[in-house]
């Protein structure tokens, strides 16, 4: 219900933006979330310069088909039962993201001019290992597995103080 004041009722002209917004179809939020996962995967591949990653291989056939549908349509999205091969590819991808992020962190720490507050030089506040752990929820991979890999990578690159945290 759109409540308007009496003074606006007699106004003539184009339809207000509020009325146009109310007339729009509602989006299917899980489909938008699915698109967000793909965008995040593509951004991680680009920003971390990951080689040999095929983004669509991280999704099953239902997931791939959902990318090309209207956001207002209700689509069949991947269910809880996933192909073990797809889960393995997803896990490998997330571990690659963490490894690349730690390598970037290590190379930036070697430069003496890098400030302590900018561990990750990509964007302010963008912590890729944390993003990979968050993405693990959407991709049905254990967050603990991603976090353990992150700690192992920190220790292997000699950043024990960060690994302990």
Mean pLDDT, to the nearest integer, reads 82
Q: What is the rounded Rg?
A: 22 Å
- Please state roughly what percent of the residues sit in beta strands, choosing from under 5%, 5-15%, 15-25%, 25-35%, 35-45% or over 45%: under 5%
Structural class: mainly alpha
Stretches where pLDDT falls below 50 for ≥5 residues?
Answer: 112-117
Protein name: RBGPR protein
Pfam families: RAB3GAP2_C
Domain Rab3GAP regulatory subunit C-terminal: 2-165
Short description:
This protein has 165 residues and is an all-alpha fold.
Features:
8 helices; mainly alpha; 165 residues; single chain
Describe the protein:
This is RBGPR protein. The protein is mainly α and 165 residues long. It has one domain. It is built from eight helices and no strands. It has helices spanning 6-9, 17-23, 29-47, 61-66, 84-110, 128-138, 143-156, 160-164. Helix 5 packs antiparallel against helix 6 (128-138), helix 5 runs parallel beside helix 7 (143-156) and helix 6 (128-138) runs antiparallel to helix 7 (143-156). The radius of gyration is 22 Å and the shape is elongated. The relative contact order is 0.11. Mean pLDDT is 82; it is low at 112-117.
């Amino acid at each position: 219900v759109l409540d308007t004041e009496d003074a606006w009722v007699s106004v003539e002209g184009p339809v207000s933006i509020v009325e146009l917004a109310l007339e729009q179809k509602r989006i299917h939020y899980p489909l938008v979330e699915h698109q967000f996962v793909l965008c995040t995967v593509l951004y991680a591949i680009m920003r971390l310069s990951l080689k040999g990653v095929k983004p669509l291989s991280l999704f099953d056939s239902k997931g791939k088909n959902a990318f090309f549908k209207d956001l207002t349509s209700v689509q069949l999205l991947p269910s809880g039962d996933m192909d073990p091969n797809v889960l393995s590819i997803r896990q490998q991808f997330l571990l690659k993201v963490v490894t690349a992020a730690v390598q970037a962190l290590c190379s930036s720490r070697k430069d003496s001019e890098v400030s302590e507050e900018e561990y990750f030089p990509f964007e302010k506040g963008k912590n890729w290992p944390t993003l990979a752990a968050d993405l693990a929820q959407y991709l049905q991979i254990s967050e603990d597995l991603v976090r353990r890999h992150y700690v192992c990578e920190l220790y292997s690159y000699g950043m024990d103080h960060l690994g302990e945290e």
